[in-house]
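[job 0412] stage=complex_fold ligand=5-phosphoarabinonic acid status=START
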Amino acid sequence: MIKISLGGCNPFVKKAEYDAYLGKAFAAFDELQGEKGAGNDFLGWKTLPVDTPESLIAGCEAVRDDWKALGVNLVVVIGIGGSYLGARCAIEALSHQFLPAEGAPRVVFAGNNLSEDYLAELMDLVEKSNAACVVISKSGTTTEPAVAFRIVKVYLDKTYKDSARRIVAITDAKKGALKTLATQEGYRTFVVPDDVGGRYSVLTPVGLLPIVLAGFDIRAMLKGAADEREALLSKAEGNAAIQYAAMRNLLYSEKGKKVEILVSFDPRLQYLGEWWKQLYGESEGKEGRGIYPASVIFTTDLHSMGQFIQEGDRVMFETTVKVENAKRSVVIGSDEGNLDQLNYLAGQHVEHCNRMAQLGTKLAHIDGGVPQIEVSMDRVDEYNLGAIFYFFEFACGVSAYLLGINPFNQPGVEAYKKNMFALLRKPGYEAQTEEILKRI
Ligand code: PA5
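[job 0412] stage=complex_fold status=DONE, emitting structure tokens
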């Protein structure tokens, strides 16, 4: 279960202030659970951990086993935003950081940018591999994944007689170009449920299929999410999601803290920060409001962003994701010469140093005027990742409703697309092309 500690906010917040926001968070919790609030047709994510049928899990595992039989050693996962960040977060957190996975293909990501060099280098790898591809787009029309898929598909079609067996599409049940293409080409498909938005979709096939292909246990992930859901069902002061929503909104609305930095002291969680930024940024950043979500990895970024966080403009608070237990053990040895003067650490676990760095940073940042929230997970594994995904999703719903924002739409994402389509001369955008050319 995910635990929360708000002790690092005490120097900045009076109890009465917090109690007032706790009351607002209870009301927001009721709005989310009553399912009558703005965007309430996108609440399917709430029950995914307990609703996901065995047939869907078995379907994901069947693709894994089929591609194993083909000897596939590279899976290209194509998608952008909510259609890749959850899977990438889980796979990067669970994978060995240096060695290739044993008994599972390498999973790489594409379709999340429009860099020509990125795609060229991706194809260098695809051409050297026994490749397969998962293409993910809920709308089935997003340009970045469509471009990447066109390039990968052309190569797979020309290289493998069984190319259709090597492609799986995850998209809407009925509409969109990807759905039409997948049906015509005879690809295996999985459905992104209508009532689950992209950034809440990690526990649908959007996340589950890539994660299982990378060799990880999606049943344990769903179990972790289910247990976390159970823990967050009660409207009580001890509900960690309610506490998180209350405190972050208080800091934002009453204390001028416009930026929240998600901190981890474990580089494996870098993409948890990326996933969380999209979840909160796209859910809350609307109508001229919202906390700006940023992320750092410490101690790495203490040597880059640490100066600003300690002494720069006092606009931020930090939420640290603490991992209670390391997976491995590395003890610092003793050295007779002690020329590096490190013998005072001899016999200590590296994780002990990490914890002391964590504590030292917390105290320093409190002294520097940066309130501290801590969210703890037991260890980095499938079960706990499932729990933290669900925790942050649920807390996001409560938090956005507290702020008075619909967390389930993203109208602002369209603005750049319209301009880009006009500039690319996409059919149907002729009028905008003339207008936009006058502006550049
Ligand atoms: O959260 C969201 O809805 C977005 O980030 C989408 O996931 C992203 O824009 C990709 O959309 P699609 O899956 O339709 O290609």
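Strands lie at 3-5, 74-78, 106-110, 131-137, 167-171, 188-191, 259-264, 292-297, 316-323, 372-377.
[job 0412] exit 0
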